[in-house]
Each structure stands twice: as structure tokens, then as C-alpha cells.
């Protein structure tokens, strides 16, 4: 492919990518509600403008915080360099009033460099709430297009050896190492600890005349080798431009280079907020702040800030024109002074470092001549688009590329663009064009245990990788303060969920997948690791799917703040002592989705140093050949556990989901095997903690992991649990809050038979049953009449509505008036659950396995009917029952209070509107009788509906309109004054 063909083709592919990104962004904005966009991380809702200030080149930086002062921003996908649009929260049309580039983002604050000439009213906190939307990145696309055009022009203006070499016009120059300008015995390395393959790569890179590729598999010290090469280049008198596609990769280079501070002078381009704190002093802004003319530039900035802050006070057009002219003059002066300072700073440095995008002509490098640098170094070259690499390569006659084309490629949105060749990186293309003649591979890795390394070495690196002696056999137990147990002594662990009914969620969003069963298993294993003495900061939890990352964060982030939970794409280039992987996919079709990308799996596996745990459904993921090789390797070389072994821990897990998660009708993708009885799933409204697709497993309702029928018998399990507790020495037993209303009722019934205390504790979705031993209180026994157990489908509709069991006595009715607000909610929920008896019968699918069980259930039905008849009140007691009801309605509902409430009801206009119960004057206030929280919520809602929430202040009235209003007001005042004068004369 020649240069002209390359430029035309890549321009078209970039156009496809850009259009796809814009189209997807527009569809997302239209398709989803604001809340759904927030859950996807594409918008930060309800933020307040915290402050504004002037940055480099006179840019206006707006800093936004959460609306509630001191609160954190919601989880989002914003990062430095993204394009953000600011929208008024009160604008239903979502019209962007200001757009700009995200310069920095923390958990509490996001800063946006807004475009010059944008809305000047956005200069101080005026009480308006805003939303910040993530927009399609126009800056990168524009710079890539300009770079492609520049490649054509450069060839016409001046000779470029790299362009001819990279497009097959010429071949790389042959260099014989024996004829190296520096003899081996006189060659001194800055880092004497380099291994043989690293030293060979350094010599090779220095001797190559045009291009050198350093292939660095995971953990082989690629960046260390690149730094060594850069130091030698500087010592030989070369000016070096070092770039990488991401900020973190550039910072890694800077961090290693500054350790040789006496040897080289470095400058890091880019906003200081994007730079790691420990190397910020080497950023361009920090170096400029130490320059001689800094005070003059700072005075100009202060004057610009003063103009911005006072802009709102000026209302006349003449004032606005004058302010605008003064502002433009100051910005021009500031720009000229900063340009001179930047050029002086860059010329004073030995090495200039930046991301590839910043290396374009629109960045600070435009202050230097085009041929200023001697060598361009691109680290992590395999993660960048080829057009992005040319931003740096066009500035030097020689280049050194470093990376690993077996790890993640650049992210491309458009499938058409990827298939057309946009996903082909420069490193891959050069290796295909010139082969190994321009490449040296590093072969000794310093990260992974030998067992963790061996699979990727055999599959992707031709078995050439060797583990260094310092890491070959290291384990978690060798770390200080860590216990020596089975978990810490295992480098490889596979937790297999095959056959355990832990299926992936069938979400409405096909792009993201989640698996709650795997999320619970991962959280259990992480807690086991931490309990063994491993610090949370030394553990990483990784998944290929963003939804799974959310599920894992819900379970672990609040408990372990230092624990890193990330997607595979967000963890490239990182490492941890222990890595726990969740593969998510579990379905009958054998679809593995993202897992089919070999490079993604390679990155995930090679992040671990001492311990790698993989949680997956081996049956599903083994449908893909590459994944099957990994499962086979883990099975042969690691410890394999069935998910069944964790059933005791899963029993008490609280199933958590994102509030806005939407499922399809089926809820989960299940597989129905012959003879299996699988519980049917039903999608329910999700609020915080909800029953999940894996709840049958967690509640011990499905425990069979082996092939064959899976029995679901919740009645037996509950009876067995209560009986075992009654026979044990324990004083207390807690059932999980995930029991449904039928299961809770059954627990109460069985506990009553065994003479145990049985109470419900907790609120809302955390409400659960607690059993305690001891003699039952007689009063409680009289007040709470539990219904006898009934067989499935035996209760009549009338019985289901009125509650199964005997009719209550007068004591019961008085007691029922004292039920707490939460108990009333629970009883109402249980009543509605009982009403849908047929639906429960389908869900439970409880089948008696023998005729004897059938006969036993029929006997229970008949005995239930007899008992109900015996407990029915006689006809002559009906008057007493009515009297007790009337007495209860006329007595204060507060426990221990027997005051009459007739007068109080007349005085207050009726019972409490929140709980619909009557109280005397002493207990009438909601805060007194227990409805305080409900009253607070009701008052807050009413306030928000009428006048609550922040509102945009009224816009200033235009001058002509103000004059009209003033004239009308003066006329009215004059008329009123005239009336008073006339009235005074008459008197």
C-alpha cells in the first residue's frame, strides 16, 4: 500500500468511526432516560458550579461539584480529555449551553476547560443545577485527519526516510552489531540489573538507523528497557520526543526517567491535573510557574478572572463591548508571553514527553521547528491507531516502537472501520512488512509465578517466556503477615459453576452482561483472601463486562475501599499480587462474546503476580477453542473447586443489583436439562436489594451440582433448619432476608411447633426472621395465632384474602392496632403474595417424590380443615367480637395507652394520615407515635412539589422592557397619590 492509498483509506475509515461514534451517542441520548444514562456513566446529574479560573493559554476552567456539598459524584465513565457538554438541569430539551474538554476528574470534582467565547454567564455559582453529558470526541478525530494530510505534504516538502520505509519504498538499513560505534567492553548501562535480552534490545535500538521494535510481553520490563534506550540517546546528544497513547503510560516513563534526574532534564506536556501527583513538578505548567516572567503572566490571569467575575454586573451593551475587547487584548498578550516561555522551556529539556494526541501541531510542540527532534519513541505502540503514531513520527528521522501486539488493541466503535483495517496497528503492519529484522523480543518476565505465565507463553509467545528466579515460585503465603493455608498456597484456582444454575442475566442492554452467582462467589473468595492477611490494595477483581463490574462493586467496594474492581480494558499495564477473574458468560448457546478476543483474555490472565482465581461456567466458555485451552490448563495445573463448596457462604448473601438494571422477560438465560426441575424466573421491580436469578442456589433450594435431577424442596429445608437449631446448643439462628412470604410463614409455623421464639427484625428489604430459644411468653402466644401448614393449592381464594388460620379474638384485634408501620407493610406484602397462590405453585414446582408423601400432604389438608372448623368462634360470641372492634377503634393506638380518642379525632379531623390509626392528644403527633420518618418524607415531597429544589434565578429584565414597566409603575403611583390629595381636600 502506497502513501496516497493509505491516507485516502484511513481518512474514510476515520470518517466511519467518527460517524458511528456520533450516531451511537445520539441514539443513546434519545433512547435512554436521564437516570439510565447516569447508570451507564454517560452523564453526571445535578452538579453545581464550584468555581472558575483561568488556565494555560487563557483557557477558562469551570470546576463542578456534586449538588449536595461534600457528596461524591456518581460513578461515571468520564476521563481526562473527554468532550463534555454542560446542560441546565431545568432544560427538558437538554440543550448544551457550554462545551469543553475534561481536564481532570476526581470522586468529588470534575473540571472542564470550556471553549473561548462560550456563555459568559457561567462564571460563578449562581445556584443553578447542571447536568454534564459525555459527548463524542471531536478533538482527536480532527487532529488525526490533519496528521494524515500532513503526511502527504511532508513528502512533497522534504524527504522523510520513515514514510518511504514504512510504505515499502525502501528497506531498513542493515547494521552489524560487531561494527557498533561503541565496543561491548566500553558500553556502560545506566541500569546494571538488565537481563541479557534487555541488553541486547538496548544495543539493537541504538544501532538501528531508522526503526526498531521492542516486543515486550507482560512483565518483561519493556518500559525499563525503553528508559535505558532513551538515556543512552540523550548521552549521545540526541533530542528525544517520547510518547504513548495514554496518560498513565507517559507517567510511567516520566517516573522512571526522573530517578536519573542528575543525568537528564525532562518536561511532561499536558494538563497538570492529568499527571500523577509525584511527577507534577515536571509538567510544563509547573516548569513555567518557576520561570522568570511567571509573575507577569499571573497578573494577566488575575485580571482576566476579575473581568469574568464582574461580567454579570454589567448590563449595558457598551459595557459588554468594552469588557469583551479588554478580555481579548489580555488573552492575546498572555498567549504571546506563554508561547515564548514554552519555547524556551522545551529547548532547555533533553526529553519531551506527552500523549500522542498532545504531540500534534495544535499542542505546545507548535512552538518548535518541525525537525527539532532526532528520535521519536512511542511506548505501548500496539494500543494506538497508526494515524495517531504518525503525530510523533513526523517530527523525527528515527523512531523506536515498543509494545505487545498480543495485548489489547485500540478501542474502535465502528465494526465497519475495524474490518476495513483501522484496527491494524503500526506495529503489526511493520512486522508483516519487514519481519523480525527490525524487532527484538524480551524473554524474561519479572511478574508472574511460573504456572500463571506458562499458558500465555505457550499459546501466544511460542513458549519463549521464562520466569525469573525471583518470581518463578513466589506465592501469597510468602508475603509478610499472610497465613499459610490452602488459598495462599495456590497459584491457580478455578471455581467452576457448571451445573449449578448460575446463569448470566438476560439484560435489555445486549452490550453488557452480568452474572450474580459469579459476583457472589468472587466476593466470597476476595473476603477469604483478606481474612488470610492479604491487603485489599494487593487484590484486583477483573471482568470483561461493565455490568459485572457494577455488580462486584455493589458487593465489595463499600467494605474494602482499597480494592480495585475494573474491566479488563481499564486494567491493561497494571499488576496485582492476587487477581480474581469473573468470565460471566453462562448460557445454553455457548456464546462467549468479548471472551472470544484472545488479546483481552491474555491481558486479564497476565495481571496476576502470585495468585490467579478464575470463576466461570466451564461448559459455556469451553465452546471457544482458545478459552478451552485455558480451562484445560487450569484443570491440569491448578486447584479446581465446584461452586457447591461455597453453598454455606452463599446462603447468607444479600443479592444486590443496580437500581436501574432492566431485564428481559425471562430474567436469566437458563438451560433445561432432561429430568431437571429449574425454578422459573420472574422479573420484578428492582429497588436496592432484590431476589435474583441465583437465589434458588443461595437459599439452598437448589444445591445439586452433579448431573441429574435438581430437587427443590423448600418445605423440607426450612423444617430441617428449624429442627437442627432446636436440637443444637446455639441460642440464636437467623434466616436470610431473601425468603419470600410463603417461606417466612412456614418458618413461623414450624418454630411455633418447636416452642421457639420467632420474630422479624430489620426494615424493608433487610427484614429477616430470627429464632431464639426459651419459653414463649404467654401473652405473645395468645396474641399471635399462627395458621397450620397447608398443602400447595389447598387454600381457597377467600382464605387467601383473609389470611389462613383461625379468626382473631378481641385480644388479637387490640394487638393488631399496635402493629408497627414496618410490620403493617410486611403483612400487606405477605397478603398479596398469598393472594397469588397459583403463581407460587408454578414457581415452587414442588412435587412429592413418593405416593407416601402425597398421602401425607392429603392428610395435612384434611387436618387443616378440621382444625379451622374447631377454631371458628361460636355464633353467640359474635356480639362480643363486634364490641371489641368498636372498643379498639375508640381507644388510643399507642401501646400502654387506654385514653379515649373520640374527642381527639374530632379536634384533629380524623386519624393519622400516614398510618391511618387513631391517637389521643398526647400521642397525636407523627414523631411521637412512630411515623416521624414517614412525616419527614411526606413534608419533603410536598415542599419539593410546591417550592422546593433549586431554581434558576429570574433572568435580568431587558432595558426597554424595564423602562416600560417603570413607566407604568410611576403612572400608577401618581394616580394613587392624586386620589389621596383629592380625598384630603374633601375632608
TrEMBL record:
Stretches with biased composition (Basic and acidic residues)? 667-679, 819-856
Query: Residue limits of the AN1-type domain?
Result: 886-939
Q: Which family does it belong to?
A: Belongs to the DNA2/NAM7 helicase family.
* Organism domain of life: Eukaryota
Q: Where is this region: Disordered?
A: 667-691, 780-876, 942-964
The species is Ornithodoros erraticus
Specify the R3H domain's residue ranges. 712-775
Q: Which Pfam family, just one, is annotated for this protein?
A: AAA_11
Question: What is the official name of this protein in its record?
Answer: DNA-binding protein Smubp-2
Where in or outside the cell is it found?
A: Cytoplasm; Nucleus
Amino acid at each position: 500500500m502506497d502513501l496516497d492509498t493509505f491516507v485516502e483509506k484511513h481518512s474514510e475509515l476515520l470518517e466511519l468511526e467518527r460517524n458511528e461514534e456520533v450516531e451511537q451517542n445520539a441514539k443513546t441520548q434519545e433512547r435512554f432516560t436521564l437516570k439510565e444514562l447516569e447508570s451507564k456513566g454517560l452523564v453526571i446529574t445535578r452538579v453545581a458550579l464550584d468555581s472558575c479560573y483561568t488556565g494555560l493559554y487563557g483557557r477558562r476552567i469551570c470546576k463542578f461539584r456534586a449538588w449536595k456539598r461534600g457528596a461524591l459524584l456518581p460513578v461515571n465513565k468520564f476521563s481526562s480529555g473527554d468532550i463534555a457538554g454542560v446542560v441546565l438541569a431545568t432544560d427538558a430539551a437538554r440543550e448544551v449551553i457550554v462545551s469543553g474538554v475534561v481536564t481532570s476528574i476526581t470522586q468529588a470534582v470534575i473540571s472542564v476547560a470550556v471553549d473561548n467565547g462560550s456563555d459568559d454567564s457561567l462564571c460563578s455559582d449562581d445556584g443553578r443545577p447542571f447536568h454534564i453529558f459525555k459527548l463524542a470526541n471531536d478533538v482527536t478525530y480532527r487532529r488525526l485527519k490533519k496528521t494524515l494530510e500532513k503526511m502527504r505534504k511532508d513528502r512533497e516538502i522534504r524527504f522523510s526516510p520513515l514514510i518511504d520505509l514504512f510504505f515499502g519504498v525502501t528497506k531498513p538499513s542493515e547494521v552489524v552489531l560487531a561494527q557498533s560505534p561503541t565496543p561491548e567492553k566500553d558500553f556502560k548501562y545506566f541500569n546494571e540489573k538488565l537481563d541479557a535480552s534487555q541488553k541486547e534490545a538496548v544495543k539493537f535500538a541504538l544501532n538501528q538507523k531508522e526503526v526498531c521494535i521492542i516486543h515486550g510481553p507482560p512483565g518483561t520490563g519493556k518500559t525499563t528497557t525503553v528508559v535505558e534506550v532513551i538515556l543512552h540517546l540523550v548521552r549521545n546528544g540526541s533530542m528525544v520526543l517520547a510518547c504513548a497513547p495514554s496518560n498513565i503510560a507517559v507517567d510511567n516513563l516520566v517516573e522512571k526517567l526522573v530517578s536519573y534526574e542528575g543525568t537528564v532534564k525532562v518536561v511532561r506536556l499536558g494538563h497538570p491535573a492529568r499527571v500523577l501527583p509525584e511527577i507534577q513538578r515536571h509538567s510544563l505548567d509547573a516548569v513555567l510557574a518557576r520561570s522568570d516572567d511567571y509573575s507577569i503572566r499571573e497578573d494577566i490571569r488575575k485580571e482576566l478572572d476579575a473581568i469574568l467575575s464582574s461580567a454579570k454586573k454589567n448590563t449595558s451593551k457598551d459595557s459588554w463591548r468594552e469588557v469583551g475587547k479588554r478580555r481579548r487584548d489580555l488573552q492575546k498578550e498572555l498567549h504571546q508571553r506563554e508561547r515564548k516561555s514554552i519555547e524556551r522551556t522545551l529547548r532547555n529539556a533533553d526529553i519531551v514527553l506527552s500523549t500522542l494526541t498532545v504531540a500534534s501541531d495544535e499542542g505546545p510542540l507548535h512552538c518548535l521547528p518541525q525537525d527539532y527532534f532526532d528520535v521519536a519513541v512511542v511506548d505501548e505502540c500496539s494500543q494506538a491507531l497508526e494515524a495517531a503514531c504518525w503525530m510523533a513520527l513526523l517530527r523525527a528521522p528515527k523512531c523506536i516502537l515498543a509494545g505487545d501486539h498480543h495485548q489489547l488493541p485500540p478501542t474502535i466503535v465502528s465494526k465497519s472501520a475495524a474490518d476495513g483495517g483501522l484496527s491494524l496497528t503500526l506495529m503489526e503492519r511493520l512486522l508483516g512488512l519487514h519481519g523480525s529484522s527490525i524487532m527484538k523480543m524480551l524473554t524474561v518476565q519479572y511478574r508472574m509465578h511460573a504456572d500463571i505465565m506458562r499458558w500465555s507463553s505457550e499459546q501466544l509467545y511460542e513458549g519463549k517466556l521464562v520466569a525469573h528466579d525471583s518470581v518463578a515460585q513466589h506465592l501469597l503465603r510468602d508475603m509478610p503477615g499472610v497465613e499459610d493455608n490452602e488459598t495462599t498456597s495456590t497459584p491457580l484456582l478455578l471455581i467452576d459453576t457448571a451445573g449449578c444454575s448460575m446463569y448470566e442475566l438476560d439484560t435489555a442492554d445486549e452490550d453488557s452482561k452480568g452474572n450474580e452467582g459469579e459476583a457472589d462467589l468472587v466476593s466470597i473468595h476476595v473476603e477469604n483472601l483478606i481474612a488470610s492477611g492479604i491487603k485489599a490494595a494487593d487484590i484486583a477483581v477483573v471482568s470483561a463486562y461493565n455490568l459485572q463490574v457494577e455488580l462486584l462493586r455493589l458487593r465489595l467496594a463499600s467494605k474494602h475501599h482499597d480494592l480495585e474492581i475494573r474491566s479488563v480494558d481499564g486494567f491493561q499495564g497494571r499488576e496485582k499480587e492476587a487477581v480474581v477473574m469473573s468470565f460471566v458468560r453462562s448460557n445454553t448457546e455457548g456464546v462467549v462474546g468479548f471472551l472470544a478476543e484472545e488479546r483481552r483474555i491474555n491481558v486479564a490472565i497476565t495481571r496476576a503476580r502470585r495468585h490467579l482465581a478464575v470463576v466461570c461456567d466451564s461448559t459455556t466458555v469451553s465452546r471457544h477453542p482458545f478459552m478451552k485451552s485455558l480451562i484445560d490448563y487450569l484443570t491440569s495445573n491448578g486447584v479446581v473447586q465446584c461452586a457447591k463448596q461455597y453453598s454455606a457462604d452463599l446462603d447468607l448473601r444479600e443479592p444486590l443489583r443496580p437500581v436501574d438494571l432492566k431485564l428481559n422477560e425471562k430474567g436469566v438465560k437458563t438451560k433445561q436439562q432432561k429430568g431437571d426441575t429449574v425454578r422459573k424466573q420472574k422479573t420484578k421491580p428492582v429497588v436496592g436489594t432484590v431476589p435474583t436469578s441465583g437465589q434458588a442456589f443461595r437459599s439452598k433450594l437448589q444445591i445439586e451440582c452433579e448431573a441429574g435431577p435438581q430437587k427443590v424442596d423448600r418445605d423440607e429445608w426450612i423444617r430441617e433448619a428449624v429442627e437442627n437449631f432446636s436440637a443444637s446448643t446455639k441460642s440464636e439462628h437467623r434466616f436470610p432476608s431473601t425468603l419470600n412470604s410463603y417461606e417466612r410463614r412456614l418458618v413461623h409455623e414450624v418454630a411455633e411447633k418447636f416452642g421457639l421464639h420467632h420474630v422479624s427484625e430489620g426494615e424493608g428489604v433487610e427484614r429477616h426472621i430470627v429464632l431464639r430459644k426459651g419459653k414463649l411468653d404467654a401473652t405473645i402466644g395468645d396474641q399471635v395465632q399462627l395458621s397450620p401448614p397447608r398443602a400447595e393449592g389447598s387454600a381457597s381464594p377467600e382464605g387467601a384474602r383473609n389470611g389462613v388460620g383461625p379468626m382473631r379474638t378481641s385480644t388479637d384485634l387490640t394487638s393488631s392496632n399496635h402493629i408497627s408501620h414496618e410490620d403493617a407493610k410486611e403483612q400487606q406484602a405477605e397478603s398479596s403474595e398469598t393472594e397469588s397462590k397459583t403463581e407460587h405453585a408454578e414457581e415452587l414446582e414442588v412435587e412429592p417424590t413418593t405416593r407416601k408423601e402425597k398421602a401425607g400432604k392429603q392428610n395435612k389438608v384434611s387436618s387443616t380443615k378440621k382444625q379451622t372448623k374447631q377454631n371458628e368462634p361460636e355464633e353467640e360470641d359474635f356480639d362480643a367480637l363486634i364490641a371489641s372492634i368498636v372498643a379498639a377503634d375508640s381507644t388510643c393506638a399507642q401501646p400502654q395507652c387506654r385514653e379515649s380518642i373520640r374527642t381527639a379525632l374530632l379536634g384533629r379531623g380524623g386519624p393519622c394520615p400516614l398510618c391511618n390509626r387513631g391517637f389521643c392528644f398526647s400521642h397525636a403527633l407523627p414523631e411521637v407515635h412512630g411515623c416521624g420518618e414517614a412525616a419527614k418524607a411526606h413534608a419533603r415531597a410536598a415542599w419539593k412539589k410546591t417550592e422546593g429544589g433549586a431554581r434558576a434565578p429570574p433572568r435580568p429584565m431587558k432595558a426597554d422592557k424595564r423602562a416600560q414597566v417603570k413607566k407604568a409603575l410611576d403612572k400608577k403611583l401618581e394616580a394613587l397619590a392624586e386620589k389621596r390629595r383629592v380625598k384630603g381636600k374633601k375632608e
